[in-house]
């Protein structure tokens, strides 16, 4: 059965979109998604999750799962550009 997501809707003058994590759809957490992607694609894929978890232990778990860096919610546009570039060895 394919899960259908509702279309974005206007709420208080702004569009709101209901989102689900990829892992939730598969019944696994984001760390396991990272491990699976890393196992299949190796270092050819840059993994930078957007998360609400920013404690040191969260950062350590993400690193152990194969993520290059991570962004904390809410991320700015500048962060969306800068952090992946820095993680890929680009500008700092």
Architecture overview:
This protein has 92 residues and is α+β, with helices and mostly antiparallel strands. The protein has one domain (9-87): Rossmann fold (3-Layer(aba) Sandwich). Helices cover 40% and strands 11% of the residues. The protein has 4 helices and 4 strands, in the order E-E-H-H-E-H-E-H. The chain has helices at 22-26, 30-41, 56-64, 77-87, and strands at 9-11, 14-16, 50-51, 71-72. The strands form 2 sheets. The chain has a two-stranded antiparallel sheet with strand order 1-2. Strand 3 (50-51), helix 3 and strand 4 (71-72) form a beta-alpha-beta unit. The protein starts with 8 loop residues before the first strand and ends in a 5-residue tail after the last helix. The model is unreliable at 15-19 (pLDDT under 50).
Q: Can you tag this structure with a few keywords?
A:
alpha+beta, Rossmann fold, two-stranded antiparallel ribbon, 4 helices
> What's the structural domain tally?
1
| Number of DSSP helical runs | 4
Secondary structure: helix percent? 40-55%
* Largest sheet, strands/sense/barrel: 2 strands, antiparallel
Q: Would you summarize the structure shown here?
A:
This protein has 92 residues and is an alpha+beta fold.
Any chance you could write out the topology, listing elements then pairs?
Elements: E1 9-11, E2 14-16, H1 22-26, H2 30-41, E3 50-51, H3 56-64, E4 71-72, H4 77-87
Parallel strand pairs: 3-4
Antiparallel strand pairs: 1-2
